[in-house]
Amino acid sequence: MKTKKLNKKGALKESIEHLENQLPLFFKNPEIKEQSAKIDVSNFLGLDEFPVYNSKRSACRPCYKPISKIHFINE
Amino acid sequence: MILIISKSEMEDTTNQVMDWLDTFNGDYYRLNGEDFMNKADIINGQIQFESFNSEAITVIWNRRWSSRGLINFENEEYYDALGAKNSSTLLRSLRQENGILRSFLHSKLNSKVWTTRPEKTSANKIKNLEIAKSCNLSVPEYIITSNKYKLSQFAKKHERIICKPISETPFFSSSIENDIVETLILYTKSFTANQIEEEIEDTFFKSLFQQQIIKEFEIRVFYLNDTCYSMAIFSQNDKQTQVDFRNYNDAKPNRTVPFILPKEVEENVKKFCRKAEYNIGSLDLIKSTDGKYYFLEINPVGQFGMVSYPCNYNLEKKLAKYLIDENKKVK
Amino acid sequence: MNKSNYIRLFANCIPVKGAKNVIVCDIQRSTYFEIDMVLHDILVAHSNKTIEEIIEFYGKEYEDEILNQLDQLQKEELVHLTTENHLFPKLDLTWETPSVITNMIIEYGDYFQEKETEIVNDLIKLGVQYLELRFYVDVSNETLQNILQSIQKTKIVGIYLVLQNFPYEDIDKFLIENQRVMSILLSNATDAEDERYKDYNKISVVKHKIVNNKNCGIICQNSFQVNLDLFTESQQFNSCLNKKLSIIENGDIKNCPSIPEALGNIKETTLTEIFDSKEEDVNKYWNITKDQIEVCKDCEFRYICTDCRAFRESDNIYSKPLKCNYNPYNGKWEDNLRGSK
Ligand code: SF4
Ligand code: SF4
Predict the structure, then answer these.
(1) Which of the two ends of chain B, N or C, has the fewest CB atoms closer than 10 A to its terminal CB?
(2) Contact yes or no for B259 and C12 at CB 8 A
(3) Domains in chain B, number
(4) Residue B308 covered by a domain
């Protein structure tokens, strides 16, 4: 896999701030949010290809109720 | 035949409407913008792609176009090498090529019934505010200026003012080390007259400022075929979402409940949609603490799942039904 | 608190009254709260009164207490104040789905390979969205992979696996490549397996053997789910068996694997054929709601609990699920499983 191009931490905010005078005022004092790009394999609700819909990345989702109750144990 | 113009990725709403069309035995075809750009041929004025047949089409659900940007960021390093100037030239060229092909498709389909006509997909906020006013809807006072003096005068008239994009809010992100992604948050900003005095330079780039409405709650209306489906969003309780509802609070999502617009407001909303020529659209309103209902904007191709599900309106089914009925009418 | 206002539960916070207790089902935030019976009356029976009128009704001496309680609810964001009561309708509790069959249980058996193509086509036609796939014997990774691949052609968005063995070395890779798999239940697990999967939320292990469908039907608090779909479906339909279809190990087609009546056998017919020709038998249990079932109809959990008709207390088709030990008349979960002997 190709390695992703990495930027310097904070460069995004700094650059926008330098350009501030040429930008509408809603660009003023932007905030930066950092998010982990790592996928939590176990919790991740993924996307899959669904040829029936001619759609490449559609959401998979759990059922809103237990399909069966074979996995419950009576404590 | 119903034509759905959509995109090939991350578009579950289209899938859900297709489920209902299947239930109704609807005759439809989904054309993703990406497929049209990458796979369709245009030979002597004829669009040739799979079973696509513009003759058979009667009604078009104009939903989305493409999920991919014009630049493939796998190749980001080459754009960096080109530099900003050449990259923007390249991007402009790609956009023009893309735009002409897309509008050729639109011209081929010009005589069909559209949920949203192509020229209407990106709303002109300012024009719409004026149309809304002419339909007796209250709109917040606004000024578009690059002049600090005028802005100060405007700000003094109102307790607080907000600044927001005239078009869409852009999204910026960048990958840094350790698998971290930085995103730039450009939420709606709120200022007092004093803050304008102190924090703003004498001249600045032309921006849109609006009187800030103190809200009791927000309202999202999905308009479909002369009917309004409304939802109240209680975002005022939560400090995090007072100015801008997109600033979601995940732990305790804002309360979203079905709402009935007062008759008069509803009539005016419908009048607006007819006058501005929208068959479907997602409108933002505010109920202010002074009891008035303010129109903010319409998003012609807005998400409606976020109204449909919490209020159990089943809009996916209603839209499918609408498409089926229109298809029958034309045939 | 402005006393000339009306006080309303948010439309997605819905009170459900049982014989002894009342809960408010917060279907937006997927949780429920117990509330006091008097408070329930204030919110439900007197919802057309302003706060002032409510206080008047109960008597001035209760003013502080009432205001205190309402204040509490407001802090919890269960209620809102308004002067325009009529603009906030109740939630429409109609449940609708585009699918003919929403959920399907397939027990893997000898019939499967020969019938796979037909079954997959029917899964698409019936619009099935969720699938539980059970293996009562060990499965090879080729077999499992092939099945998962053909399911890709369907509309199924969530797959639940019940396995005797997990035939993959690389768990992460499996989960990333099979996003539709929502959870895996590994039966008959060893201590080593328990250790190996303990950090995976999608994988749960049980020490006992699940080798047939007798284990199903257990109702406990863990099986409750508070959400709009279940809440609304339960109003008009059976919360377990509605729009469910199953194929068991020997190919018999049933509403659910544990129910005695077979509708036909997959070796002789197809799922769509069964549905078209025997609709009456297919949906025998579909319309039995919790409001018609003994005991459940007095239970405050009836719209967040799912039903069981395969294991019930008596032959009466409306009798209480056998494997539930909750008693709504005293509000207690009893230790011993009633009638399980
Ligand atoms: S009816 Fe009972 S046995 Fe059948 S699937 Fe539901 S819980 Fe399991
Ligand atoms: S009594 Fe009925 S509704 Fe209540 S928990 Fe038991 S099975 Fe569920």
Answers:
(1) C
(2) no
(3) 3
(4) no
CATH code of the domain containing B49: 3.40.50
In the listed set B179, B212, B245, which residue is the last one of a domain according to the structure?
B212
Which residues in A lie closer than 8 A to residue C202 (C-beta atoms)? Answer: 42-43
The whole-angstrom separation of Cα A47 and Cα C114 is: 30
**What is the identity of the amino acid at B291?**
G
User: Ligand 2: distance of its center to the CA of C225 in Å?
Assistant: 13
Q: Which ligand is nearest to the CA of C329?
A: 2
Give residue A49's domain range: 11-72
Contact (Cβ atoms closer than 8 angstroms) between residue C321 and residue C223: no
pTM reported for the whole predicted model? 0.94
Q: C229 alpha carbon to ligand 1 midpoint, in Å?
A: 18
Could you tell me which residues come within 8 angstroms of residue A60 by beta carbon, excluding any fewer than 6 positions away? A45, A46, A47, A48, C157, C158, C179, C180, C182
Same domain, B110 and B10: yes
pLDDT tens series, chain C, 341 aa: 889 999 999 999 999 999 999 999 999 999 999 999 999 999 999 999 999 999 999 999 999 999 999 999 998 899 999 999 999 999 999 999 999 999 999 999 999 999 999 999 999 999 999 999 999 999 999 999 999 999 999 999 999 999 999 999 999 999 989 999 999 999 999 999 899 998 898 999 998 888 888 889 999 999 999 999 999 999 999 999 999 999 999 999 999 999 999 999 999 999 999 999 998 999 999 999 999 999 999 999 999 999 999 999 999 999 999 999 999 999 999 875 544 33
**SS3 (DSSP) at B206:** strand
Phi/psi at B205 (5° precision): -70, 145
Query: B275 is in which domain, residue-wise?
Result: 122-138+213-300
A59 within a domain of the structure (yes/no): yes
B131 and B183 part of one domain = no
The number of the ligand 1 atom at minimal distance from the alpha carbon of C259 is 4
Domain count for chain A, please give it. 1
Distance CA C294, CA C1 (A): 42
Instruction: Looking at the structure, tell me whether residues B157 and B128 fall in a common domain.
Output: no
Same domain, B105 and B172: no
CA C305 / ligand 2 centre spacing (Å): 6
- Residue B324 in any domain: the answer is no
Task: Indicate yes or no: CB of C201 within 8 angstroms of CB of A43.
Answer: yes
Residues B268, B280 within the same domain: yes
- For residue B9, give the DSSP letter: B
DSSP state of B138: B
Same domain, B206 and B223: no
Within a domain: B65: yes
| Chain C contact set for A52 (CB, 8 A) | 124, 153-155
- State the ligand closest to the CA atom of C104: 1
Task: Establish if B187 touches chain A: CB-CB under 8 angstroms.
Answer: yes
Report B:28-47 residues touching A (Cβ under 8 A): 30, 32, 35
Residue B68 within a domain: yes
Residue A41 falls inside a structural domain: yes
Going from the Cα of C326 to the center of ligand 2, the distance in angstroms, rounded, reads 6
- To test the contact with chain A by mutation, choose from C104, C121, C153, C180 the residue with the greatest count of A C-beta atoms within 10 A, namely C180
Contact C28 B313 (CB under 8 A): no
Alpha-carbon distance C7 to nearest alpha carbon in chain A (angstroms): 30
Angle (nearest 5°) at CA C249 between C246 and C254? 30
Per DSSP (E only), the strands in C59-195 are: 79-82, 103-107, 130-134, 158-163, 181-186
